[in-house]
Amino acid sequence: MRYLFINSVYGVRSTGKLIAAKCKELTENGHECYVAYGREAVQDEYATLIQIGTAFDYTLHAAMSMTFDCHGMGSRVATQRFLRKAEKLKPDIIWLHNIHGYYLNYEVLFVWLRNHPEVEKRWTLHDCWALTGHCAYFTMKNCNKWLDQCENCPQLRTYPKCYFADNSKRNYNYKKKCFTSIQNMTLITPSAWLKDMVCLSFLNSYPVEVQYNTIDRTVFKPVQSAFKEKYDIAGKFMVLGVAVGWEETKGLQDMLQLRLLLDDRFAMVLVGIPHKKQRMMPSNIIAIEKTESQSELVDIYSAADVFVNPTHQDNYPTVNLEARACGTPVITYNVGGSPESAGHEYVVRENDVQGIKQYILEICKTEE
Q: pLDDT digits over 329-341, tens only?
């Protein structure tokens, strides 16, 4: 079988690594894999890579999106060029992942998909962008407009950011028209929570399967760690948080509030704090910009006594899986699919930082 994957990246970040792992599995079982990507990719032996567009196409698409709120409607010529290559490949299965990310025109893509009913189509949804007129997640604003009709979007300044226009109503109607027009399509979600959202949306006519994301447990496993000694926190309980960029939605303010609630028996380590934000971190927080390798991240997970993920909107966070695989219990908010990947054991209501503290004391078997 010949597979054609489409995603914004390959071999990097969570979605790119998932696709790389799937290509490895398929190739080792005798299948042929091609991956069309938008921005970043890591070459390997398991997939033939096809880049959609150029850096200029990406920049122009982003500028259009930020100005006119038309994310996914740029890159028309780049998408047409890619689809001419896809026509020659004659794939048996086309597997969509993130089709947003300033690199692909979804109208052009879905016209092509509609004209190829014989090709099996799968679409793994990693967020809620396909369901809405603008945002990738709606939980932080408790917005339910996507159920009937998006308009007057309360999250224009969140990804995919727009600064000048609100075309959420048009986008919603256009997505509904495009995305519901395909034969032989199966939707896949990495969490039961997202499946429930899909079944409430205009995509509810398609079959939906839950396929939980996995991690490489030959890499993510408990190891002997000298991290505490390196940072002079031996003898303290280590509270860990890991995120990319630590935006508002990831719960940075919650972690800062939690730090105030914990005494000096506890050390807090935050991985993924951008350099410009590190200057604003309290002196009693160890802020690390990024790890240099997966083995370094495993070392940090293994050293931690508890992992806290105060995300305000997420699907099925991989960091929860990684921490648990390294033997570290996970505390998270009852938000999106985060409780699912956290194991449902230590879950508190959103914004309940005091509840997080109580679970930390319980896990560390200590009292106030």
A: 999 999 999 999 9
Beta bridge pairs of residue 268: 239, 285
Half-sphere exposure of 254 (CA within 13 A, CB side): 26
Whether the Cβ atoms of residue 109 and residue 86 lie closer than 8 Å to each other? no
What is the 3-state secondary structure of 129-178?
A: HHHCCCCCCCCCCCCCHHHCCCCCCCCCCCCCCCCCCCCHHHHHHHHHHH
CB 352 within 8 A of CB 257: no
CA 38/CA 59 separation, integer angstroms: 12
Letter for the amino acid at 314? D
3-class SS of residue 286: strand
Closest CA to 251 of 300, 309, 317, 330: 309
The angle at the Cα of 308, spanning 305 to 314, to the nearest 5 degrees, equals 145
Contacts of 177 (CB under 8 A, 6+ apart): none
CB atoms within 10 A of CB 157: 9
Those residues whose C-beta lies under 8 Å from the C-beta of residue 272, and which sit 6 or more positions away, are 242, 243, 244, 245, 246, 288, 289, 290
pLDDT digits (tens, 9 = 90+) for 181-197: 999 999 999 999 999 99
From 317, 45, 327, select the one nearest 193 (Cα to Cα). 317
Say how many CA atoms lie within 13 Å of 131 toward its Cβ: 28
pLDDT at 368: 67
